[in-house]
Write a structure and sequence with these properties.
Layout lengths: L1 E2 L2 H9 L3 H13 L2 E3 L1 H13 L5 H12 L4 E3 L2 H12 L4 H8 L6 E3 L3 H7 L7 E3 L2
Parallel strand pairs: 1-2, 2-3, 4-5
Helix pairs in contact: 1-2, 1-3, 3-4, 4-5, 5-6
Length: 130
């Protein structure tokens, strides 16, 4: 199994460097791949901030990579839940933080807009301001 860095996923998803795209595509096609959830998080940030991908395109790109044969995602249930919440309008980082809260019944934050938005989420911990 090979664990990949954000730049490998970004090259694969953007094809902005033909040689690196070809090499990333070959790697993802021939090896079992592990993707840490921090790499998923950073990939979303790079696609949004550097490549100006809109949220639906980011979601589709990430789901596409996650669905490739031989790809294993760290904490895949949390990442899938975060992608669903992201599709519903939540910031991806916030969604991943919430989805990764484990067995916690409560998530404390000073982010009042997040508290309001999270009320509509299914299976999310209760959000409170400390």
């Amino acid at each position: 199994m090979v664990s990949v860095d954000t730049n490998v996923l970004v090259r694969f998803l953007t094809a902005d460097d033909p040689d690196q795209f070809r090499r990333a595509k070959a790697l993802l096609g021939r090896e079992d791949i592990f993707i840490a959830k921090t790499v998923v998080l950073e990939t979303e940030w790079v696609l949004r901030s550097t490549y100006n991908f809109p949220p639906p395109q980011i979601e589709a790109a990430l789901r596409g990579v996650i669905g490739l044969p031989g790809v294993t995602i760290e904490d895949s249930d949390a990442v899938a839940r975060a992608l669903g919440w992201f599709a519903a309008g939540l910031d991806f980082a916030d969604a991943l933080h919430l989805a990764s809260a484990g067995e916690a019944a409560t998530f404390a934050t000073f982010d009042r807009p997040l508290i309001r938005r999270a009320k509509a989420l299914r299976h999310a911990p209760k959000l409170v301001a400390p």
